[in-house]
Amino acid sequence: MKQQMLDSMDIERERGITIKAQTVRLQYTARDGSVYQLNLVDTPGHVDFSYEVSRSLAACEGSLLVVDASQGVEAQTLAHAHRAIEAGHEILPVLNKIDLPAAEPNRILQQMEDVLGLDVSHALLVSAKTGLGIDKVLEAIVGCLPPPLGEREASLKALLIDSWYDTYLGVVILIRIKDGVLRKGQRIHMMATHATYLVDRIGYFIPKMMMGEALMPGDIGYITAGIKKVADCRIGDTLTDGHSPTTTALPSPQIQSPVVFCALFPTDSSCYTLLRDSLAKLSLNDASFTYRPESSAALGSGFRCGFLGLLHMEIIQERLEREFHVDLITTAPSVAYLVHRTNGTLQELHNPIDMPDRSQISYLEEPWVLATIWVPDTYLGAVLTLCTESRGQQRDLTYNSGRALMVYKLPLNEVVFDFHDRLQSLSRGYASFNYEMAEYAASELVRITILVNGESVDALAFIAHRGTAEDRGRQICERLKELIPRHLFKIPIQAAIGGQVIARQTIPALRKDVTAKCYGGDITRKRKLLNKQREGKKKMQQFGKVRIPQSVFIKALRLGRD
Predict the structure, then answer these.
(1) Is the dihedral of CA 284, 288, 293, 297 positive or negative?
(2) Measured CA angle at 386 (ends 443, 363), to 5 deg
(3) Is residue 194 part of a domain?
(4) Degrees (nearest 5) of the Cα angle 106, 108, 114?
(5) Maximal C-alpha separation, the chain
(6) pTM of the prediction?
(7) Confidence of residue 202 (pLDDT cuts 50, 70, 90)
(8) Which of 125, 432, 434, 466 could form a disulfide with 74 if both were Cys (CB 3.0 to 4.6 A apart)?
(9) DSSP state, 270?
(10) Is the same domain home to 352 and 418?
């Protein structure tokens, strides 16, 4: 037994967040004596894991919208509620944590009705911690949410909603049966990849894995079929019977495009194959990130990866290090820009190093997002200032029950670095933040190159707006001065736009006391030794190589705003 039963990963328990959606099958005896089988899915709430939510919505008929009785509606609540409505779900409002002294159920219920437009007359007041009202939730699921509508006699039609790699079982697939029956030993056909396999193991979660003989319409369970090729398992694919397949595939949840990109390199070049295999296995479990090979003169061979956000990037990196034991170097996160060249062609730019010469660029476009921010009135002024500093454009501002709902158009480049951290710091953790892609717009962007001892460090290059380029360059130089260990020679750190240096810091040299053994004699003896040392340091600076620890790359990118 653990504190968080469904948060199976160490990262989830340490950070107190849900990363992966988890399924549970329950047998519930209702008040009228009938026994019901409930298939429940616990989903993440953070915007970076919204793809998990969309897959879960595609697999279910109804949703429990759980809102904190003290915090109220948050930006993520608003986004997920709209997704559930678009998916045609019956929504059951649940107000949790009513046992807390700060709980204000009446105010929050009114807020849910005003902001979300939901009928809260049948909302449930519960406390998951004490168990108060939980029996009413289970009874409401049976009474209010629609049952699955599937036909046993129809051709097999199942939605592939998740997959992961098990050391002993191989590829494990999580599916939702829409029509037909899936049995052990049955031949299945995947409609998108045209792969055919024989089911050798079938079961469900209670929440531990429990083997069974068959899955019926409405069931969510897992299967193994000796799948060797990772590419055969595509999230959102339709599984059907190998002998009598269906003709129409199920609607697949829309795959979201990555918005944040960075490169991952192994610290040891011999671990490249291990990193490649680890990414392939991890992509089974998280289909929302992409990767492709990339090489760097300074860092060797690696992969350019795309993520749904900065937290998503951190989680993937941690999972690679913990689950697959790969030591990584991570480059600066960036977003995808559109480069309109003078010859009329369009280039999508993921890596700042690939940015063409200014003479070949007609103009650049950067992605903008529509951000929704919920914040208490007390912190509204500070948050408005933050949005203005981040080049934001206000779209809407409304008030409800002592909280302000702000809608801002923000450049994604400003959001992915540290916007969320600064927002939480300014609001003391009371603000909530959610965003969705809006459009690409022309902007004055420049590439900032970081030079350490005169050599360009590809991993630290980034693209910024010209108005903030000098500040960012100065901040990263100051941070690198603190992080890079001192050597026996001076190390200049420079930030440059093209050939123009916009910021500089110098790491002083470690000094050995070469005059320690001079106990007497003329001062010229000491000067001779000091001059010899000075010449040696100049020569060392010319030919010496600066070793930058891998931890420096990650810490330096927070831009000194901790």
Answers:
(1) negative
(2) 5
(3) yes
(4) 105
(5) 106
(6) 0.73
(7) very high
(8) 432
(9) G
(10) yes
What are the beta bridge partners of residue 63? 91
The pLDDT value recorded for residue 1 is 60
d(CA 132, CA 96): 10
Nearest to 52 by CA among 199, 224, 236: 236
* Average pLDDT, rounded, for the chain: 83
- Nearest to residue 56, comparing CAs of 300, 274, 220? 220
Give the per-residue pLDDT at 559: 45
**Cβ-contact 174, 215 below 8 angstroms:** no
H or E element at residue 533: helix 523-543
- Report pLDDT for 204: 92
The Cα–Cα gap between 90 and 112 comes to 16
* Residue 9: count of CB within 10 angstroms of its CB: 17
Parallel, antiparallel, or unpaired for β 182-183 and 346-349? unpaired
- What is the spatial distance between Cα 383 and Cα 394, in angstroms, rounded to a whole number? 12
Whether residue 5 is contained in a domain is answered as: no
- How many domains is the chain partitioned into structurally? 5
In the listed set 443, 466, 491, which residue is the last one of a domain according to the structure? 443
Q: Which two tokens stand for residue 307?
A: 């993520």
Q: State which amino acid sits at residue 83.
A: R
The residue type of 252 is S
- CA dist 479 and 505 (Å) reads 10
Question: Are the CB atoms for 260 and 306 separated by under 8 Å?
Answer: yes
Q: pLDDT value at position 327?
A: 85
CATH of the domain at 540: 3.30.70.2570
pLDDT over threshold 80, residue 469: yes
* Closest to 500 in 3D by CA, of 554, 546, 545, 447: 447
Residue 322 lies in a domain: yes
Higher pLDDT, 287 or 181: 181
Q: By C-alpha distance, which of 281, 269, 372, 386 is closest to 328?
A: 269
The C-alpha atoms of residue 179 and residue 264 are separated, in whole angstroms, by 42
Domain limits at 109? 10-144
Closest CA to 352 of 445, 259, 454: 445
Comparing C-alpha atoms, which of 404, 401, 407 is closest to residue 381?
A: 404
Let me know if residue 150 belongs to a domain.
Answer: no
Sign of CA dihedral 251, 252, 253, 257: negative
